[in-house]
Amino acid sequence: MASSFFALLDDIAVLAKAAAASIDDVVAGAGKASAKAAGVVIDDAAVTPQYVHGISPKRELPVIWRITRGSLLNKAIIIAAVMPLSIWAPWIFPWLLLIGGSYLAYEGAEKIWHWVHAKRGAHGGAEITHADADEPAHEDPAPASPEQIAAPALERTPTDEKQMVASAVRTDLVLSTEIMLISLANVDADSWLPRLAILVLVAIVMTAGVYGTVALLVKMDDAGLWMMRRRAGFAQTIGHGLVRAMPLVFRALSVVGVVAMLWVGGHILLVNLAEVGVPWPYDLLHALEHAIGGPAIVAWLINSLCSAICGLAWGAVLVGATGLFRRK
């Protein structure tokens, strides 16, 4: 009886070690798979705050939570769709990734086009007339007080919030599809169950990371306003700095998101063109890396730069083609 008991303990220990090894493999696989989707994640974090702009601060976190639930549902539906395809029609994924890479390249190039167009419009405004010159110069307004800055936004009705959440979840569906397809393409596991476990872990971690970051960013100005009302001068200084810095943070996040979209989109295009029988662009990139040589970081920078250029070039073609189609 005792020997059977100890044999059972040995079996449990072996199973526990195997389970721990499997968990380690899943975590490592999820980390590798999610790293390739960084560009989409940054863009998702940059896009989402616009959906809570202008609502009451007390409704910001509930709205973000509703969008988070919608994002998790999106990813669950996507995983349920792609897992059977990975078994019965794996050949379709390079084509889906080419579509996804084209979408990322298009989005990045379109945003750059809008920036350039807006800058030209700012410098190409109407000339100042004599009547305008005779107008007295407007004095700069006095700095806003914490009470003015903290003035409550217009309350939105439940219907408005429902439409806002629905719009955000629709946008998230496209970005979540990109995240899960890119992640699945970088999963090394051969069997079905580890692939499923890795995708589920990626979905949870990515969603928590994106919308947790969004919630933190959205509430940073509220934290700044709270500090501005403190008596301590040091706290007021930090509070003013937070309130003034957040627009710059969102602007920088938007720029980083565009660069990441072009880089990731271009890399997806190069890799998957080779998968569908067009290997020369990727071979040319590897030849360039070998010709320049140097440490690994140099090869990575060359690869990233060429991928971003490829993404920008193809995105510009798609933007131009879309513009011609709209004119017709």
Largest beta-sheet characterization: none
Cα-atom radius of gyration: 25 Å
Query: How much of the polypeptide forms β-strand, as a percent range?
Result: under 5%
- Helix percent band: over 70%
Oligomeric form: single chain
Number of continuous helical runs: 11
The shape, in one word, is: globular
The figure for the number of domains is 1
Poorly predicted regions: 11-22, 126-154
Order of helices and strands: HHHHHHHHHHH
Distance between the termini: 85 Å
Present the secondary structure layout:
Layout: H1 2-35, H2 38-47, H3 57-88, H4 92-123, H5 130-134, H6 146-149, H7 158-185, H8 192-228, H9 233-275, H10 280-292, H11 296-327
Helix pairs in contact: 1-7, 1-8, 2-7, 2-8, 2-9, 3-7, 3-8, 4-7, 4-9, 4-11, 7-8, 8-9, 9-10, 9-11, 10-11
Describe this structure in words.
The structure is a single chain. With 328 residues, the protein is mainly α. The protein has one domain (18-122, 155-327). Helix content is 82%, strand content 0%. The chain has helices spanning 2-35, 38-47, 57-88, 92-123, 130-134, 146-149, 158-185, 192-228, 233-275, 280-292, 296-327. It is globular.
